[in-house]
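so im writing up the methods section and need the Protein serine/threonine phosphatase PrpC, regulation of stationary phase record in one place, dumping it here so i stop losing it
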Amino acid sequence: MTMMTGQTETSSLRVESDARTHEGRVRELNEDSYVAREKDGFWAVADGMGGHEKGEWASEVLTEQLGSADLPSDFDGACKVIAERIYAANDIVYAEARERGKQMGSTVVALYTQGRRFAVLWVGDSRCYLYREGALNQISRDHSQVQEMIERSLLDPGDAEGHPMGHVLARAVGVQGSLTVDVIVDEIQPGDIFLLCSDGLHGYVAEGEIARLLSRADPQQTTQALIGATLDRGAPDNVTVIAVMFTEPTILSIPQPATAA
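--- predicted struct ---
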């Protein structure tokens, strides 16, 4: 298992984050990978697919592209660069897949923050959740066959869990020559906790349990507990989690010393 922990202050908000990945109890290879650039306000999770070493390579192409991205100082420009790096990874993986004659690819979900704004960019079924004021909200929407059926009113959301098409992706990086990256932009509130995760978490741990563990409001304890909850359920897949918490910084007032009369 690998992990990365940090704490930063940016534009009047304190940021604390922790990232962990685990191969699980069944898989020999870990096809998940992640990016944790706390000082840049940037995190990402990628979940490779294709079996053997192909999925591992595909997810690493993504995180190498994102991890080395030179992000400009303006918010919109940084989001554009992140999307461009995802498109670049798509070109690399798709070209390799065609050359080998084998399908390979990866999901990706990325969180970029600057000041009190955030952007979530994603392809596939790796997710971004936002825990705010005691409620867990899924920010991203899975690019999966099941989600498409739900959106077309062909499947009731209550029947989605355990559906045989549950892990069939409708969109992934490297599977086709062209790609669409979805983006959501909104405002950060003090106390917000973001969770990026692969389906090794949300596929086996209920959202109610995820919310309960996020309520600890400590990124390191939260990621440890989330990985532990997955392992307790057999962890048949690789699992990667990143927790990012925003709080108001402590403000100290230092009065000027009195001068002698």
